[in-house]
Amino acid sequence: MQDRTYAADAEPGSRATVAGWVHEIRDLGGIAFLILRDTTGRIQVKFEKDEMDDELVETGLSVSRESVVAVTGGVEEESRAPTGVEVVPDSIEVIAPADTDLPLDPSGKVDAELSTRLDNRTLDLRKPDVKAIFEVRAEILRAAREELRSAGCTEINTPKIVATGTEGGTELFPITYFGEEAFMNQSPQLFKQLMVGSGLERVFEIGPIFRAEEHNTPRHLNEATSIDFEGAFCDHSDAMDVCESVVTGVYESVAENCTEQLEALGIADEFSVPDGEFPRLTYEEAIERINATGALDEQLVWGDDLPTEGEHALGEEVGGHYFITDWPSEIKPFYIKDYDDDETVSTGFDLMHPRMELVSGGQREHRHDRLIEGFQQQGLDPEEFEYYTKMFKYGMPPHAGWGLGGERLVMTLLDLDNIREAVIFPRDRQRLSP
């Protein structure tokens, strides 16, 4: 609609056509109001019954909630209206009437179960707080791109249909590719490493990843968004520096550009940007501190994965984002480089939020012979990854990188209860539609 005026832009004394959804109708007898909602907010439409055409009044007051309408009329100042102005209509067009039996209440006055909301996501996003999540998510991705470009990175796109998985044959979704078996990619890991050996050196990607994990928790998805960085001539410490700048930059951008959204979500007062450098704890220090909390029934020992209860206990003690470094080699992937002076300790690191892990990264093994050894130690056939390993014969620089879970970043930044709230159309074990 070329002549359309957004609700927030309607000026007193002007004539405007506003279009959007019928949020509610208030009939007070001789006067009635239709509240119209568009992407910028709400605007009041006033019907003075005795002074208006009966058909116009009937059309405006009989239309069902959530119908799409266009209202044309004069804009007048009205301090009691939601935006300080109201439209006095001389025409109203019902563009798309809505069924009166709505599966959920877009006004938010009546709560709905998360499953009902996800089944009816289009209606769900008409609620200001839900819409705000995805406006913030968009800002998070924009800010992450800006930070990574500032770090000298080139954005790339890697295949999502692959012949082999990043870490072997587990947790892969198989598909048929022109009569051959293929898989949905778990990670851009191997491809982004190949790019640091090209002329690009520093690269990043923001894109989907697929994990066939049979989890059914509030923090796992089977299709997720990964924010990935890889840099040539970087070690694990350099990679952590980039990671910290991206996460802090994202928080700063949200604080600066998403004030209305944070208010809609009711968290504007408590939202804060991480202050100072993120602590860097070695794995050994982490398990010692977790053991000291008494949160676990059994003490952790070298080589154990960190249980969720232990992560939470340590996170509460640290009180903010922190890195865990120097993980045991045996529990990190084959492509993570070990320390030259102690091959039992890897350069792998994780970035933790007090609620959960956000990032996994490390320096990569760039030496061909050591890389092949790593495959063999983890029971993988190097020949299946020949497209990847052969490039390490042709001058692969030292490099490091990480992958950041996009939905987990949204979830922790906005303090959401369930990671599915951070995805418009989530995919998990039970949900393949819509």
Structure commentary:
With 434 residues, the protein is an alpha+beta fold. The chain is 28% helix and 27% strand. The protein contains 12 helices and 18 strands. The protein has helices spanning 54-62, 114-119, 121-124, 128-150, 189-196, 236-257, 259-264, 283-293, 308-318, 368-377, 386-389, 406-414; strands at residues 15-27, 31-38, 41-48, 68-77, 85-96, 154-155, 161-162, 173-177, 180-184, 202-210, 223-232, 280-282, 322-325, 338-339, 342-346, 349-353, 356-363, 399-405. The longest helix has 23 residues, at 128-150. 35% of the residues are buried. The mean pLDDT is 95.
**What average pLDDT do the residues reach?**
95
Shape: elongated
First and last CA, distance: 29 Å
Number of strands: 18
Indicate the radius of gyration in whole angstroms.
27 Å
Low-confidence stretches: none
Structural class: alpha+beta
Q: Please count the helical segments.
A: 12
What does the main sheet amount to?
A: 8 strands, mixed
